Amino acid sequence: MLSQNVSLHNKVILVTGAAGFVGANLVMWLFKTAQASHIIGVDSVNDYYDVSLKDYRLQQIESDVKHDNQWTFKKGNIADKAFLESIFEEYKPEIVVNLAAQAGVRYSITNPDAYIESNIIGFYNILECCRHSYDNGTKGVEHLVYASSSSVYGANKKIPYSTEDQVDNPVSLYAATKKSNELLAYSYAKLYNIPSTGLRFFTVYGPAGRPDMAYFGFTNTLRKGDVIKIFNYGNCKRDFTYIDDIVEGVYKVMQVAPERRNGADGLPVPPYAIYNIGNNSPENLLDFVTILGEELVSAGVLPPDFNMERHKELVAMQPGDVPITYADTSALEADFGFKPSTTLREGLRRFAIWYKDFYMKGGK
How many structural domains compose the chain? Predict the structure, then answer.
């Protein structure tokens, strides 16, 4: 296992995408674990999906705040360079976790501009601010951790997906932007000695998640009594990863920055790393739908006599989708002694209970 070389205590920690699914849960995790630290949250709170969910997450964060200097939220877009520079100038973050991004494979087909703005320009701005945090000999950013995606593997035939695999054939613009993030981070690590770690997330799910994800969208559709479409005729597998496992993985990675060192040529060896965070256990979509239906019935979201078979339609694969995602997490286990452990049924049970509470109070 790698040794911790970054303390999260008494630090200024910047989390972008703080109103997002992973970002909000990470902030609340840090409240419990990063003692006497000041967490700066940044988010544009855009309307890509229901803003009430983002407001709910921010309210959950506010309810967890224990003292005045624990939490500061700034609404703004990381693609606005002046805004981001003002954050770095005022707060001088020592650890940066970039989770702000335009997500979603299908949305990238119809709204490509959003991906270039957030995922390319926004991430470039993050890197530039990290670079200039070292100006005039200051200590600057100790570790940049950023979200990549399992989408970078494209239609990779080799499974499970390993970070050693070539990922040069993205099948969506979203995937291409995430691969670009990894390349940009590598070049800035090489040029400016910025310790950076990219995390390829595999199908994150759980309470208060993103409504554009299959489990959430299926639930909305089934609750209305409509038919859900299962792509590739049900012959898809996904490595579903519960939100608490993702956040714990991010937390562990934050504390281990890639080592700064010089190579034989006297130049910096890029302090750069990439890891998969997934369950290492892909689930067939048909099995997933069965479990989801059972847990929705158990939670009271669907009636006890709900007939799932009448509400399923098997259809062809969509553009940009891949038939399987499957994470090789051996590097994460070896370096951090960590492997996600929440079962799909337990994770979907927690989601179903939350969904009932959030959407169906008072018989709504």
Answer: 1
